[in-house]
Amino acid sequence: MSNEHDGSTSDENELERMREKKLVELREKKPEMASKPVHVTDSNFNEIIGKHALALIDFWASWCGPCKALAPTIEEVAKEYAGRVFVGKLDVDENPQTAECFQVFSIPTMLIMKNAKEADRIVGCVQKKYIEAVLKKHLE
Hints:
The longest helix is centred in the N-terminal third of the chain and has 27 residues, at 2-28. The chain is built from five helices and five strands. The chain folds into two domains: 1-30; 38-139, 3-Layer(aba) Sandwich (Glutaredoxin), CATH 3.40.30.10. Helix content is 49%, strand content 21%. It has a five-stranded mixed β-sheet with strand order 1-3-2-4-5, sandwiched between helices. It is an alpha/beta fold. It has helices at residues 2-28, 45-51, 65-80, 96-101, 128-139, and strands spanning 38-40, 54-60, 86-91, 109-114, 117-123. It is elongated, with a radius of gyration of 21 Å.
C-alpha cells in the first residue's frame, strides 16, 4: 500500500512540475503569428495591430484583379515571415470603416503597422522583393 501512495505522490509532483512549466511558458509567450494571412475586420483591426509589433495588412476586394494577382505573394510573405511579421487581409467592401480611416482609396494597398501606428504604405500590385525590402527596413 505504501508503494501505491509513493507512486501517486511522485505522479502528483510530476504534474505540479508540468503545470509550473506550462504557466511559465504561457506568461512568456508572445502573440502567435500565423503562417497564413489572417482575416482582419473593422471590429478586430485595433486589437490585432495592438498585439503585434509589426504587421502587414493587405487591403483588397474580391472583384479586384490586381488584388487577386497579389494574393499568392501575400501568402508567401506570411509563410516566410511567420513569427516576425503578422500578415492580415482586410476586405474593403466588408470593412469600409478601417479603409476610410486610413484613407485607402486604391487597392491593393498594404499598410505596414509598427507598434499600432502606420509606418509605411505600399500601393499597387508590386513584386515580392519590394514588399520584403519595406518589411526588412522595419524589422531592423
